[in-house]
Amino acid sequence: MSNEIKHARFPKDAQARREERSRVLTMKYGKHQMMLIRKRMKIENWIDGEVTKLFNGNENNGVEIDVDVLLDLDTVPAKRKFVFDHLQRSHCPASMDKITMFLDEMIDQLNTL
Q1: What is the DSSP string of 15-65?
Q2: Is residue 71 within 8 Å of 89, Cβ to Cβ?
Q3: Where is this region: Disordered (predicted)?
Q4: Distance of CA 5 to the CA centre of its chain
């Protein structure tokens, strides 16, 4: 039996937690896989931010857009309808022009994955 003592690590601040998580993710995945993960996270965060803007800054808008479901849909019209229906169900206050611009940009973003 070893006398080695294992210690739990508790980062002190948010920056330290991010660095620790980044280090762990880097160890777990290769560079290419990490690039894809970061790209996807960037798009997911972009979608969340844009939806918040459509709801006049209200982060508690009840809209959860599942990127996996979006990517599994075969056609651009199906993807647009999926997101548009989510926005309508949550009574999105944005104008149709703003929603259309968001949907166009979202499709462009998804096409980069």
Answers
A1: HHHHHHHHHHHHHHS-HHHHHHHHHHHHHHHHHHHHHHHHTTT-S-S----
A2: no
A3: 1-21
A4: 39
pLDDT of the residue at 11: 47
Q: Tokens for 47?
A: 């979608």
> Considering only CA atoms, which of 47, 103, 43, 112 is closest in space to residue 76?
103
Q: Where are the domains of the chain?
A: 38-110
Contact criterion met (CB below 8 Å) for 75 and 13: no
Give the per-residue pLDDT at 13. Answer: 61
Q: What is the distance between the alpha carbons of residues 27 and 33, in angstroms, rounded to a whole number?
A: 11
Is residue 88 within 8 Å of 54, Cβ to Cβ? no
pLDDT score recorded for residue 7? 52
How far is Cα 59 from Cα 51, in angstroms, rounded to an integer?
A: 8
Q: State how far the Cα of 96 lies from the Cα of 102, in Å rounded to an integer.
A: 10
